[in-house]
Amino acid sequence: MKQFSDLSLPLTNRREFLIRLSGAVWGIESIRHATGAFALSSSPPQVEQNKRTTSSYEYYVQNSKDFKRVKQEKPLCEKAFPGWLSMPWTYQWTVGYTEASGRWSLAHGYNGAFLDGNGGSPDSPPGKLDWINRNGLRFYMDHTAGKGDLHLWDGDKKAAHLKELHGNGVRAVPVNDALKQKLFKVIKNNVSQVKSSPFRAAYALDDEPSWGHFTHPTMWCITDDPSAYKLWLKEVYGSDAAPTREKWITYEDIRPSLSSWTVADFDASPLLDQWSFNDSVWCNLVGDLVEYANTVDPQTPCGFVGGQAPNAFGGYDYAKLMRKIQYLEAYNLGSSQAIVRSFNPHNAIPCVTSTFHKSAEDDIWQIWYYLAHGNRGHIGWVENWFDGETAKPWHKVVAPHALQAGKVIGPLMQGTEWMHDGVAIYYSHASVQLGWVLDAEAHGKTWVNRDGDHRLGASHHVRGAWENMLRDSGLQYDFLSYVDVIQHGVPDTYRVLILPACLCLSDAEVSGISSFCQRGGTVIADYLPGVWDQHGRGRKGGGALDRLFGVKHDPAMKAEDVFGTKGWYEVDQDANFGWKTYKEFLTKENTCLKDSTGFHKAVRKMPTPTLREEGRGKAILMNLSPQWYNAYRIEGYESAKHRETFMKPFAEAGLKRWVEIEGVGEAEFGYEITYFRKANGRKVLFVISNPEITGSELGGGNASHLKTGIATVTLKFAKPIRNVRDERQAKALEDGERFKFNWAQNEAIVLSFD
User: Helix or strand or coil: residue 630?
Assistant: First the structure.
């Protein structure tokens, strides 16, 4: 294994850097708003040099290939996914590819299919494409770029590479021009063999690809080009300010210092820069492969399947990644589904998720839940579907819902765009990275075994708590990325901006956030906003947003000054590695100071909360972690009222429900309402259950504690709605403000109206 230990070697490959720096963008930059499509310039905004000076980092985000979009066209999406597709991954498909199995598939709502590469595998036997074409099944092709390069290994083979994963060497299959050319040939061969089918829906480069292994802690360098990292640092920092990094490091190089560092001493930038570099090289590779697939077949979107939670490892900076793909299956881990939906311009990228059979009730809920969140289909893991050649009885129970989704509601969703209620949740990937650095300290030297970050990491639980508080309060939201804020600012269609554990912020982000507040927006942070910069360096003068919030974070703060645990973390995730309930997770061996509100206090010497007016807006620092809400909502309706501690400022900002279930109590609690706008202004509304969701790095999005009873509910609107139609019952309703339904809580109420 070649060691990436000398980064000061002569410059040998400028061509790749220049291509990367000057790459052209396909499509348009855009952000979606409640008022409909809000198109932005196809190129980054011009810097008015007579008004301000653009920092090197800001210029980098505005201009680098790292943030350029591939072609992302809504008509391409609508053609590929004309409705809701149920695409079985035929792992244990025991009924063959016959006329009878085709009729059975269509009769049960399985209107899609998949191919594995160009055939020859057990999942894609000879003749399967003909079977797909005869039955008119829209399909995606997996492993379009082959196997073994983008996803390196499976199962026991990982054990042989653990030392390499955790060391400072080079990726087992380095990303370089030779790899790219190799994958181009594989893509051309695979695509050419299926592009004649009128039923092709998408190409997936690979399943669960990563620059490491899923999101396992991985420290190696992604490329064997010794000049690439040095060039990237100059692009990010500017030629004169780029740090000199003599060697590639691992977490173990900084872990022993965490307990002694003050904020002023804190410097995780060598690690965060390495991970960001790996993310950029990886995402640009994905984008290049997608664009190459477009040259072979311009009519079919290309992306990948098996997307993981946002993470420090693996290339899962979704602000970068969503700009490089045209198709995605993302597992519902660490808010990934909501993040993907938010970063999907005009809903132009067909997104799906995996489904694992747990029960018929759960299968039905998954169809309606994911359709209600803007997904375009399911990839079904075919395991225990059949007894020999006989389908199991649960298929008949689920079939009416799959058929209605495929034939009625899916087509209804064509051309729609998500609506929010004026709320944005900030996506800071640098904070995800630093969050891992802080969380993993609890493991000591066993950090190398830290898997399942989506169920451990504070960044994931804090995001999830905010989402649940909003949904349970009847408010819908978008995630807003650091890239969009740097390039375009915070749009005025948002009235409240939430900063969830946004530890790391650049000066450019701070400027955009502050400007939003001055213009009349409300900014709410939970704890430690901008105390570190975007590279993971502690700010020596206090938090970057201290003036906005009217507080002072002491640069002399150490780990014991935050939350009161042994490290910088809220929860000892080593002691709670195998937790079963949120309450257990938050209480076992936890020495945090619990505020009178019922939430953990962050900086122990600072008050909770603080409010400051800035221009026409307000800035509120809670100095609390919202993680406890994940436990409170499990306890039920009354306990969930704890959210008012965090939700009070939303009401003061003028945000309130415009539609709700009237007179909610324990029986109805946990419902969610989502809504979409069609181009003609007509709305489509879903009422669904919002239970906790379980899954793993191998997929899934099943419900936990799913309610399946029949609830008689009255849907109440703030003002009368007209031309109302119950889409599931296919009948018109009277105009009005109140509508009564018998709601099966693992299903959906679906209305359309003017």
Answer: helix
Cα 630-473-409 angle, rounded to 5 deg = 100
CA distance 62 to 32: 19
CA distance 181 to 184: 5
Give the chain's length. Answer: 754
CA distance 102 to 137: 9
Q: How far apart are the first and last CA of the chain?
A: 63
Q: Are 618 and 517 in contact (CB under 8 A)?
A: yes
Per-residue pLDDT tens digits for 250-288: 999 999 999 999 999 999 999 999 999 999 999 999 999
Give the Cα separation of 645 and 513 in Å (integer). 23
Cα distances (Å, whole numbers) of residue 709 to 371, 539, 637, 689: 21, 53, 17, 11
CATH superfamily membership of 659-753: Golgi alpha-mannosidase II (2.60.40.1180)
Amino acid in the structure at residue 353: T
User: Do the Cβ atoms of 138 and 114 come closer than 8 Å?
Assistant: no
Average pLDDT over residues 201-219: 96
Structure token pair of residue 319: 């602000």
Residue 575 structure tokens: 């002691």
Give pLDDT, residue 703: 87
Cα–Cα distance for residue pair 554/539, rounded to 1 Å: 10
Neighbour tally for 499: CB within 10 Å:
28
- At 573-593, the pLDDT tens digits run 999 999 999 999 999 999 887
Amino acid at 517: C
pLDDT band for position 158 (cuts 50, 70, 90): low
Q: Is 733 exposed, middle or buried (0-12, 13-18, 19+ CB in 10 A)?
A: middle
pLDDT at residue number 53: 53
Cβ distance 688 to 750 under 8 Å?
A: no
Q: How far apart are CA 121 and CA 128, in angstroms?
A: 11
The string of pLDDT tens digits covering residues 224-240 is 999 999 999 999 999 99
Q: Which of 419-444 are b and which e, b meaning 16 or more Cβ less than 10 Å from the residue's Cβ?
A: bbbbbbbbbbbbbbbbbbbbbbbbbe
The alpha helices in 238-303, defined as continuous H runs, are 269-296
DSSP conformation class of 318: H
CA–CA distances in Å: residue 523 to residues 39, 184, 472, 479: 24, 46, 20, 14
**Token representation of residue 149:** 């390069």
Task: Give the tens place of pLDDT for each residue, 510-547.
Answer: 999 999 999 999 999 999 999 999 999 999 999 999 99
Domain spans in the chain, listed from the N-terminal domain onward: 66-413, 423-652, 659-753
pLDDT tier for residue 154 given thresholds of 50, 70 and 90 = low
11 DSSP assignment: P
User: Is residue 51 predicted with pLDDT exceeding 50?
Assistant: no
In terms of CATH architecture, what is 66-413? Answer: Alpha-Beta Barrel (3.20)
Tokens standing for residue 56? 């090197």
Which pair of tokens denotes residue 62?
A: 């505005």
**Yes or no: is domain 423-652 CATH 3.40.50.720?**
no
- The candidate with the shortest Cα–Cα distance to 344, out of 357, 369, 327, is 327
Distances (CA, A) of 551 to 544, 617, 623, 692: 11, 17, 10, 35
